[in-house]
């Protein structure tokens, strides 16, 4: 067995079938580790012959991916998300490498699909990702969000032809909600580390990323999509400080003079 495709999923029914079909004939096995999906994710996965399905409570993106990788039997691992699809050219590039691997890891160009359009400028482009690697030399970092693939400094990395199509968000609201979730996860990690909120830090990071995405990297060429990607992506830093301030405020013993609604209900009961 040469190549294992590995995915982690949660309520991933929207694009999962397309993702899995693109992996068929490329990977020698497909492993899915699900964290409690309540939609049709499991049903869709089992329409594909030979899927190895596992369930495990979610404890962070990096930890979940490392667990999934530990189940792989292939010499190499192809790590994809449930909303990412291998282009035909990328499929052929991977197939040409099988059996005559030339590198320890391979990078590929990921193209975001945002609200129905390809994103080829702005903060998301170019988006190079190392997603194909030797099983025994790599692991994911345990960052709460935006986990990174950790490789030895001497690892030989090649570039594959073809694109990894990433179907991100159908609406700006989806984008904003996911960004807030990522900000909350990072705020929780900072809170545990004893970090306090810094509004100066948040607004400086917001300003730098917004200007870089919209103007320096040409996001303005995308019209309203470029503005949306720049603004919501930059909002991550403000939202992180808000979540961090909220967590710190909850820890304080001080209570407001006006009772909260749930306190009033509890006192009557």
Please explain how this structure is put together:
The chain has 269 residues and is α/β, with parallel strands linked by helices. It is 40% helix and 23% strand. Strands 1, 2, 3, 4, 5, 6, 7, 8 and 11 form a nine-stranded mixed sheet that branches. Strand 6 (105-114) and strand 7 form a beta hairpin. Helix 5 (172-192) runs parallel beside helix 7 and helix 6 packs antiparallel against helix 7. The mean pLDDT is 94.
Would you spell out the secondary-structure blueprint of this structure?
Layout: E1 3-9, H1 16-23, E2 29-34, H2 41-45, E3 51-55, H3 61-70, E4 76-79, E5 84-86, H4 88-97, E6 105-114, E7 117-119, E8 127-134, E9 139-140, E10 149-150, E11 157-169, H5 172-192, H6 199-216, H7 224-251, H8 261-268
Parallel strand pairs: 1-2, 1-4, 2-3, 6-11
Antiparallel strand pairs: 4-8, 5-11, 6-7, 6-8, 9-10
Helix pairs in contact: 5-7, 6-7
Question: What descriptive keywords fit this protein?
Answer:
two-stranded antiparallel ribbon, single chain, 2 domains, alpha/beta, 23% strand, 9-stranded mixed sheet
């Amino acid at each position: 067995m040469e190549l294992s495709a590995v995915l982690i999923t949660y309520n991933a029914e929207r694009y999962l079938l397309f993702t899995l079909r693109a992996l068929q004939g490329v990977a020698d096995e497909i492993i899915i580790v699900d964290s409690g999906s309540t939609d049709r994710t499991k049903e869709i996965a089992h329409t594909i012959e030979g899927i190895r399905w596992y369930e495990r409570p979610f404890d962070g993106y990096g930890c979940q991916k490392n667990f999934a990788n530990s189940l792989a039997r292939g010499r190499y691992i192809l790590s994809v998300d449930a909303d990412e699809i291998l282009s035909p050219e990328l499929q052929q590039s991977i197939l040409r490498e099988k059996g005559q691997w030339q590198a320890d890891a391979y990078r590929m160009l990921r193209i975001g699909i945002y609200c129905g359009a390809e994103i080829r400028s702005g903060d998301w482009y170019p988006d190079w990702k190392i997603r194909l690697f030797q099983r025994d030399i790599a692991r994911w970092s345990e960052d709460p969000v935006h986990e990174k693939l950790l490789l030895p400094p001497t690892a030989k990395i090649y570039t594959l032809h073809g694109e990894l199509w990433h179907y991100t968000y159908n609406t700006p609201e989806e984008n904003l909600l996911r960004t807030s979730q990522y900000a909350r996860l990072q705020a929780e990690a900072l809170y545990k580390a004893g970090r306090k909120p810094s509004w100066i830090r948040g607004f400086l990071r917001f300003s730098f990323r917004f200007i870089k995405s919209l103007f320096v990297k040409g996001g303005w060429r995308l019209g309203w999509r470029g503005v949306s990607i720049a603004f919501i992506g930059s909002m991550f830093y403000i939202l992180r400080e808000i979540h961090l301030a909220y967590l710190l405020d909850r820890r304080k013993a001080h209570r407001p003079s006006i009772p909260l609604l749930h306190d009033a209900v509890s006192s009557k009961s």
